[in-house]
From TrEMBL:
Any matching Pfam family: DUF538
Signal peptide: 1-25
Family annotation (InterPro entries): At5g01610-like (IPR036758), DUF538 (IPR007493)
Phylogenetic lineage: Eukaryota, Viridiplantae, Streptophyta, Embryophyta, Tracheophyta
PANTHER family: EXPRESSED PROTEIN, T31J12.3 PROTEIN-RELATED
Name of the molecule in the record: Uncharacterized protein
Protein keywords: Signal
Gene3D superfamilies: At5g01610-like
Superkingdom to which the source organism belongs: Eukaryota
Membrane-crossing segments per the record: none
């Protein structure tokens, strides 16, 4: 084999090895994480993408993240948690995640002016200090610090509303 041919041959094999290596590196990302680690790693993944970890509650049982940014998070059960609004998490949450940007989101609803709205998109500000949530025509900015702590997720929600006296009226929602 002439010297150039030999070189091309080597180049071909190193490219082949490199792509096999890449493919192998993608496999763990596609496989669901074992349940014991899933909760903690789901929150770490949020942080890696520039989001506060408390965006997801603390009862994640599995998650997948594919190389094309699609993610799926499975909770132990659908549940409620309070941020500045009451939020409802379905058992399965899906969407696309890129750095500072979650789109095509499904599975998270927030109670706004007595109606439930689907959060479709969450975008972090450049400095990571705030998050902009989009639900239909509604857009709202919240400080990221509001989502720093991972909340426990409850089967039932106490809906509290500030009455004229500023009191909390508890209504149980199942
Ligand atoms: C899930 O992970 C978060 C963040 O690491 C942690 O705060 C929370 O307590 C964990 N929940 C459980 C049930 O272990």
């Amino acid at each position: 084999m002439p010297a150039t041919g030999h070189y091309q041959c080597l180049l071909f094999f190193s490219l082949l090895l490199a792509s096999l290596h890449l493919a192998a590196a993608m496999i763990p990302a596609l496989a669901p994480a074992p349940a014991a680690d899933a909760n903690a790693t789901a929150h770490r993944i949020l942080a890696r993408f520039g989001f506060p970890q408390g965006l997801l509650p603390g009862n994640v049982v599995s998650h997948t993240l594919s190389h094309d940014e699609q993610f799926e998070v499975e909770l132990s059960e659908p549940c409620y948690t309070w941020f500045s609004d009451l939020a409802y998490f379905e058992k399965t949450i899906r969407g696309r995640i890129a750095f500072g940007r979650i789109t095509s989101l499904s599975g998270i609803q927030v109670r706004k002016y007595f109606i439930w709205v689907d959060i479709k998109r969450v975008v972090a500000s450049k400095d990571g200090g705030s998050l902009v949530f989009t639900a239909g025509f509604l857009t709202e900015r919240h400080p990221a610090s509001e989502f720093q702590d991972v909340h426990r997720c409850e089967k039932r929600a106490e809906i509290s509303s500030s009455g004229p006296g500023g009191g909390r009226a508890g209504v149980a929602v199942a």
